[in-house]
Records
---
Amino acid sequence: MTSEITNIPTHVSIIMDGNGRWACSKGHDRLFGHNAGVESVKAAVEYAREKGIRYLSLFAFSEENWGRPDEEVSGLMDLMTKAVVNERPTFAKYDIRLRIIGNREQLPDDLVALVEEVEAETISNSSLDLIIMLSYSGRWDILEAARRYGKMCANATNEGLPIPFLDQDLFTGLLNTDGIPDPDLIIRTSGEQRISNYMLWQAAYTELYFTEVLWPDFRKNDFDKALESFNNRQRRFGKLK
Ligand code: FPP
């Protein structure tokens, strides 16, 4: 029996980990685990919507993941493409907005074209923002923001205008997550307890929840345990109350 969850986080983010170990433990190759992970993605999206979570972001592929064997990388890209094609009608039916955040220059052209179509098609949907972090890393995100600020300064100088003052609000707006509130809760599966270059700026005051459950096994009851844990946290943001 679970206690009543009164404080639902606005933005939940998940570092989906453990697909490879799950597959190996069953004598299969790693892609088998990633395939199974898609079912967990569907279950998590469904449950997030049911619980009234407004933003769900999923760390699907890090910049560092490009260093994995070609077969696994291309298998993962195919899997993402298939998942977006298959779930396209679901986004319309359940009022879900799809957003992809990451270095698009590294992604296959056909995947980028597909994603841009679906992003445009779902832009007005407002029950849940499903944000797939693809070819993403926190340091890349911060560097991008710094480069944008550099350009702003150069433009201001060229036009004889004052240099814009850099404060937290301005910098936050230059990140690729502009417009998306910072995650209230980050869940990481598979027993690893680290942030792995994920949302480094945005996670400054995020509550962290680690579970031993491997991503392909992660279901509603596991999601509930994370929400329950969040519900019992006292967030003070560095203040006394
Ligand atoms: C981490 O497990 C998982 C990934 C790198 C890929 C996650 C991708 C999916 C679940 C597929 C589809 C996603 C969407 C959004 C449709 P790992 O391979 O690092 O596992 P290990 O630590 O056990 O090796």
Note: The chain has a mean pLDDT of 96.
---
Amino acid sequence: MPRRHPRMMVRRSSPGASSTIGDSENTTGMHNEIERPRATEDSLRSLIDAVPGFVWSAAPDGYVTFLNQRWADYTGVQLCDAQGFGWTQSLHPDDAPELAVYWGQLLQSGEAGEYEARLRRFDGTYRWFLIRAVPQRDESGAILCWYGENTDIEDRKRAEMLLAGEKRLLSMIAGGSALTPILEALCELVEASFNGGLCSIVLVDLKHPYPASEPVPRIQPGAAPHVPLDLVPGADGRPADAVLCPVAMAAVTNEQVIVGDLNHETRWNGWRTRALSHGLQANWSTPVTSTNGTVSGILSILHREPQTPSTAQRNLIAQCTHLASIAIDRARNEAALGKIRSELTHLARVASLGALTASIAHEVNQPLAGIITNASTCLRMLGADPPNVAGALETARRTIRDGNRASDVINRLRALFSKKSITLESVDINEAAREVIAMLLGELQRNGVMLHPEFADNLPQVMGDRVQLQQVILNLILNATEAMNTISSRSRHLQVSTHADDNDRVCLTVRDNGNGFDPQDVQRLFTAFYTTKSSGMGIGLSVSRSIIERHEGSLWATVNEDGPGASFRFALPRITQSDNAGESVTTQETP
Ligand code: ADP
């Protein structure tokens, strides 16, 4: 029961208190100086009852003396019980206290006013009403009574709520929120719009299994903030089976499934029994259609009472599924884009390494073949009876020669690489790093890596080849990600930071909390073909060091002292006045 304002509890016996509509002694109350004939009073009462709203009157102290029949029909409360303050029992418990305060203020000020509150219908559902009250005064200005009228504003309230919800959801979608919270917010909006309904949204993925030509829908979890979990399909990720539940049927047929009363339903036996045991008796499952016309999800509403949707409710469902389709399409496009980005990154990396590997393989192959031939000749000579020691010595010498030749090849290749022409321009390392990070976000997300960028303000620019420097940053970040791949006992943190050091050099550090390395191996990390990974090439760091040294900078690694993992840092000279004075973009070939 709502709290009652103290003033509303008092019944005064002033003339004003009785000069109201419905008071038979004073006929109309509006013109109480005139004695109205009975017929007029009856027709006035019929008129008041015919008004498409609730009409009431109250004494100057707020004691309600009259309510029309419509009010009684709506609330299911007898008029005799509603008189005085009995009407307050129909108010929504959340609205009653504030309305009592507001009504008390009106009575005190004597001003007309209006208030929005929910009134309970005879069947227990609440609808919003605009409650208006106007004082009736005598010539001296004293209040004789209050007249009131309540108008049903449920549709307007719902439209407002839907609009506000829609705006909130669209800004979440535009702001790049994750799909689950968006769908959860949408479910809550649907639940608020469908009194007491429980909403869930599942995702539907269409897969083309070989050799079937028709795509098979698979249901995946979406959002179901209040629906019992044993009623939500999709946890197993198996192909949707229409006989399992209405949601699956809607996914398979791409058509709305309306079950007005589960008690009279013979399909979906297990699911139906579970739904009824939860006190849920109706289900409306509607496909969410993506822009290409395929089903991308199902929006399901479960109801406690048997019911079928009205036209207005069907329109509302259409609006909500449209919102869901925007959210799902957007998330899927983002995911596809992220995947393509990261594949491109890998492709670029692999392609450049691939080209290098091919040339290395070609160059190294010859001395390698020589080494093998010489080594087996050597063995044969030593195994002969008597052993041909002089010949074996000669072939062993040739083996060493070929080994040196192979190593020369590698050195030559590295030198070749560092002689590659580079494009010099002024580079903002913060910006270059941000671009690399943007490209790698999907990769980091997939690996569960938390990124902490810490870019220094007013970082001086450097002179260099932007693309090559970005290759170094990319390599350091991918290495750090790989170094954290096996970590499961702690969360994976990657810090990319920049600063200008005391020697006016621009530094970039990539710090991870991965496996780290043995400090004794620190120099080996930068030698070509040193790798600890089963599928590693071992040339990323050696190439990176060549690039940085080519830019007159240095690249080094340290084991973190204050925690697990490693830090890789490069420092480059900042751009100078003379750099700036020259051409901003030049191509330089080192001798
Ligand atoms: P690859 O990644 O193909 O192994 P790299 O030259 O990039 O080649 O790296 C050489 C080796 O350096 C790696 O195999 C790894 O052992 C070590 N390393 C590189 N980055 C890290 C890191 N962030 N933490 C620990 N070890 C690292």
Note: Residues 311-383 form the longest helix (73 residues).
